Amino acid sequence: MDIVRLTVPGSPEYLRLARLATADVAARAGFDYEQVEDLRTAVDELAFALLRSEPSTLTLELELQDLELEIRGQTAPNGVDEAPGLSSLAQAIVGAVLDHSELGARDGVGYFVLRKKLRMR
Amino acid sequence: MSSLPSDATELFRRYRGTRDRTARDELVATYLSLARSLAARYRHKGEPIDDLEQVATLGLIKAIDRFDPDRGVAFVGFATPTILGELKRHFRDHAWSVRVPRTTKEQVAQLRRAVDERSHALGRAPTIEELAIAMGVDTEEVLEAIEAGRAFAPDPLEAHTEPRDERTDDGTSHVDDRVDVERILAELPDDERLAVELRFFDELTQTQIAERLGVSQMQVSRLLRRALVRLRPERVVRG
After folding, report:
1. How large is the average pLDDT for residues B227-235?
2. Is B158–A52 a contact, with Cβ atoms under 8 angstroms apart?
3. Is residue A97 a contact partner of residue A41, using CB atoms and an 8 Å limit?
4. The dihedral of CA B180, A39, B236, B83: what is its sign?
5. Region B201-209: what's the mean pLDDT?
6. Whole-number Å distance between alpha carbons of A104 and A81
7. Is A6 on the interface with B (CB under 8 A)?
8. Average pLDDT of the segment spanning B148-152
9. What angle (nearest 5°) sits at the alpha carbon of residue B166, between those of residues B160 and B167?
10. Please, are residues A12 and B239 in contact by the beta-carbon 8 Å criterion?
11. pLDDT < 50 regions, chain A
12. Mean pLDDT throughout B56-84?
């Protein structure tokens, strides 16, 4: 299956590219309008959380596996050792629009993983 | 309304002393016409008047919260700059700005109509391809219109809310603070709070919420966007 990789500078103004890439991959996979909006919202929240540690870059990998889109986000190594936090409301929103999400830090790298299943029509 | 009616003074004192919501609501009702008339100054700037009135009302509430009736200042003179400031901030942050070309603006409006029409016709959310066909454009233009529609959309909540999370052993984080969420949601008007609760807590789709509330899917989308914008009093520069 194709994997799309996107690396952008670790600054919020580049999140537009992350949202566009997400929307494009999701649309190609057949996600409907609402699901595309859900994915854009989730990527925006999770990626923005990673940018709090001011990494030099943020890399996204988008991969469709068995009618499920997985998006992995990872910062460039910047020594971050604490998982970025989401506000309670942001957490509720991300939880509502995704089937799975993780947000954390490992070996000086911030990361997230999200998954959303394709809704069958 | 150039001077403070004596009953309003009493209401202000009561509100200042007790923070009683009933007193605040009465004050809002008393001065709503001021908010509306200030909102009307911006009616030809391309924003729906009901949005502007909501923003102006928010400014009015902020002014009521800060006003001290015993300082000898007229409330209208005190509140007007606050309300105008709120409206200007709204235009600076939320409204269409010069960076959105008119053709894009039209395409966003066309997208919203297509989403409504297709959702209704299909009885479900349309795909991007179905929207492209309905709009007579290619899918790339639909995606760009969705992104451009974000000119009205909120920033991530993370930018404005202090994280309150608990760490797990594997370094991931989770948050379970429904009380905090309820406190935040209590600040919303009833229709917006209901939309947020149905969407993010009952996890209904926008289409299902639209059916339940008897409004269009785009109206639900609008309610959700408004609610999230309202929950983010400060904004940051974003892409």
Report:
1. 57
2. yes
3. yes
4. negative
5. 82
6. 9
7. no
8. 66
9. 115
10. yes
11. none
12. 89
For A25, the token pair is 């991959």
Reported ipTM: 0.78
The distance from CA B43 to its chain's CA centroid, rounded to whole angstroms, is: 17
Q: Which two tokens mark B230?
A: 């309202």
**Taking CB atoms and an 8 Å limit, are B129 and A27 in contact across chains?**
yes
Pairing state between β A57-65 and A68-75: antiparallel
A3 within 8 A of A62, measured Cβ to Cβ: yes
- Phi and psi based region of residue B203 (left: phi greater than 0; alpha: psi -120 to 50; beta: remaining): left
Q: Which residues contact B106 (CB under 8 A, 6 or more apart)?
A: none
Give me the numbers of helices (H) and strands (E) for chain B, helices first please.
Answer: 11, 2
Between B103 and A73, the higher pLDDT residue? A73
B237: closest CA of chain A, how far (Å): 7
Q: To the nearest whole percent, how much of chain B has pLDDT over 90?
A: 14
Q: Nearest residue of B to residue A86 by CA position?
A: B163
Q: What is the pLDDT of residue A111?
A: 96
> Stretch B206-227: mean pLDDT, rounded?
79
